[in-house]
Design a protein that fits this description.
Number of helices of chain A: 14
Shape of chain B: globular
Radius of gyration of chain B: 27 Å
Helix content of chain A: over 70%
Strand order of the largest sheet of chain A: 1-2
Number of domains of chain A: 1
CATH architecture of chain A: Orthogonal Bundle
Oligomer: heterodimer
Structural class of chain A: mainly alpha
CATH topology of chain A: MetI-like fold
Chain lengths: 283, 307
């Protein structure tokens, strides 16, 4: 390739994307880090205050630590439930039964519906379920159902998605391995534990991290389902509320929270990259 | 001839089967029972999956009083008494400006995705083919942006967009191109690396300039990836709520913003409107899904592996 000719085309090939990228990401990101050490209302009236914002998050403003604990809990619960459920569905749908395609279509569909629409669909459903059908004393906006309601919505949305990935993984298992195990007299449970699960481990890693980062960064569903209650805010919603909430000059704290949020997400992502890389080497 | 062929096949198949030990009758019956139970379980689950959507569709046709907090039951079947026709649809759409929201959502999604795919494919190709310090810094910049959650840049981006006058539909498209560039460049460069360079070199020797080479040689080879990326990005942009909420002025809405507006102030808005608007919001998604299901499932699975 004649690199020198191509090189001259930088303004056409790269510059437009780069300008948009600068406006939408690079400049906001750098300013975001700087502003987390400032007191400000808009980006023009920033005043350097050092690490005061970070100290405030952990001393005065209790919502951040609470939201962090809640987010970790929520993430663990939904990752476990979603993956077990999705794997079970995938096992059932790879048995070559009639109607498999219809089931797959139905289970996957909620994944395409956006968080806001999904959240409001479930808000009304949960409301009727709790108040009218089971006559529970607390409503979905209360402490208890908010958390579990969110888990339920998350399962509804992500199970079909993870199921698709698990199905692909199971279908990739060479058929002769299965045949050999059957001829050797392995029971279905032995096949599951000794063959299916070890061989779909790459899909498991992908799904674990996808559900992990999706649950950890959850915003839309959380906002739609229980945006008006502080007691069920996850991290992303808590950051939004700090920025755009009622208290004045809280923006610095919001930005500091956002930086910590970013660091946690980055650590999770790099852990994922490291894990998938090492897995690839093994196989 | 053809009859003979069929007959020989019929004859050979049973012969082959004799090699395999015959399954016991008990085992066969057990399999039938297990299959039946599986199908019943799956059907129940599928119904549970669909109930919330079905309830919303049904309730979108109910009169206000049948949806009231303390009176109605959202799972009560629609009757002649509670039937409200399409009133919720027409009144709701008028109240929240759904028609213009649908228009905006389509404009933003279609244009942002087309511009995004075109520009980032060009960028990715350039970054892979021209090796220098600058290009690798730019490339890693794009990759890095994939790790950063939206909340990190949310406030500053909205402020900057305001200062630059990007708080319009066109401005929003620019922001989507910028914020989506990271993942697109990453996915495209992965595939460009796998394309043999010889074809491009041949095109260059034959006198194509880089633009011609890109559009006539590279784009046709990138097409499957472009479809995958386009599906992933359009799902994101179509459903996105926060970015348009933070940048667009309140009177300009996309579908998620219009849905949110249905719940705005309790006195003036009705639950039936919300239901009707939810149905309107779901219809395009279901049409999109059923019409290109294969591409979507493939794309989503590919996106999972890459990102």
């Amino acid at each position: 390739m004649n690199n020198r000719t191509l090189k001259k085309y930088f303004p056409i090939f790269v510059l437009p994307t780069l300008i948009a990228f600068m406006i939408a990401f690079v400049i906001p990101f750098i300013m975001g880090i700087y502003l987390s050490f400032c007191k400000f209302n808009t980006i023009r009236d920033a005043e350097w205050v050092g690490i005061k914002n970070y100290i405030n998050i952990f001393s005065d403003d209790k919502t951040f630590v609470q939201a962090l604990v809640r987010t970790v809990k929520f993430t663990v619960v939904s990752v476990v439930i979603i993956n077990i459920g999705a794997f079970a569905l995938a096992l059932l749908l790879t048995r070559k039964l009639p109607g498999t395609n219809i089931f797959r279509t139905i289970f996957f569909m909620p994944n395409l519906i956006g968080g806001i629409v999904l959240g409001y669909i479930w808000k009304e459903t949960l409301d009727t379920l709790t108040r009218k059908i089971f006559k529970l004393p607390f409503a979905y906006t209360g402490r208890n159902f908010g958390f579990w309601g969110l888990v339920l919505v998350m399962c509804w949305q992500l199970m079909g998605y993870m199921m698709i990935i698990y199905i692909a993984g199971i279908q990739n298992i060479p058929e002769d391995v299965m045949e050999a195990a059957k001829i050797d007299g392995a029971t279905p449970f032995q096949i599951l534990y000794k063959i299916t699960i070890p061989l779909v481990m790459p899909s498991v890693t992908i799904c674990l991290f996808l559900t992990l980062s999706n649950s950890f960064k959850l915003y839309d569903q959380n906002y739609a389902l229980n945006g008006n209650s502080n007691k069920t805010s996850l991290l992303a919603l808590d950051i939004y509320k700090t920025f755009y909430g009622a208290s004045s000059y809280a923006e610095g704290r919001g930005q500091a929270k956002a930086v910590i949020f970013f660091i946690i997400v980055a650590v999770i992502t790099f852990a994922q990259l490291g894990l998938t890389r090492s897995k690839e080497v093994e196989s | 001839m053809s009859e003979n062929e069929v007959k020989t096949e019929e004859l050979t198949i049973p012969q082959k089967r004799e090699d395999i030990p015959e399954p016991k009758i008990g085992a066969h019956a057990a399999k039938v029972i297990a299959d039946t139970i599986t199908i019943i379980v799956l059907t129940c689950l599928a119904i549970l999956f669909l109930i919330p959507i079905a309830a919303v569709v049904m309730n979108s046709f109910k009169k206000k009083i049948y949806l009231a907090q303390n009176k109605g039951n959202a799972f009560e079947l629609l009757t002649k008494k509670s039937w409200n026709g399409f009133k919720n649809y027409t009144e709701g759409a008028k109240a929240v400006g759904m028609t213009s929201a649908i228009k905006n959502s389509f404009i933003i999604t279609i244009f942002a995705v087309i511009v995004l795919i075109l520009l980032t494919a060009m960028t990715a190709w350039y970054l892979v083919r021209v090796k220098s310090k600058v290009t690798s810094i730019i490339y890693y910049g794009f990759v890095f942006s994939m790790v950063v959650p939206f909340q990190m840049v949310m406030f500053t981006m909205a402020n900057l967009a305001d200062m630059l006058g990007l708080t319009t539909v066109t401005g929003l498209i620019v922001l989507y191109v910028g914020f989506g560039a990271g993942m697109c460049v990453f996915m495209f460069s992965g595939f460009v690396k796998a394309i043999p360079i010889d074809v491009e070199e041949a095109a260059m020797i034959d006198g194509c300039n880089p633009l011609q080479t890109f559009f006539r040689v590279v784009v046709p080879m990138l097409r499957p990836t472009m479809i995958t990326v386009a599906i992933l990005e359009s799902m994101w942009i179509w459903n996105d709520y926060l970015l348009p909420k933070l940048t667009l002025p309140t009177e300009v809405k996309t579908i998620p913003l219009a849905i949110d507006a249905c719940t705005g102030s309790h006195g003036t808005y009705q639950l039936g409107w919300l239901m009707a608007m939810l149905v309107i919001a779901i219809i395009p998604i279901i049409i999109f899904y059923l019409s290109c299901q294969k591409h979507i499932i493939k794309g989503v699975a590919a996106g999972a592996v890459k990102g």
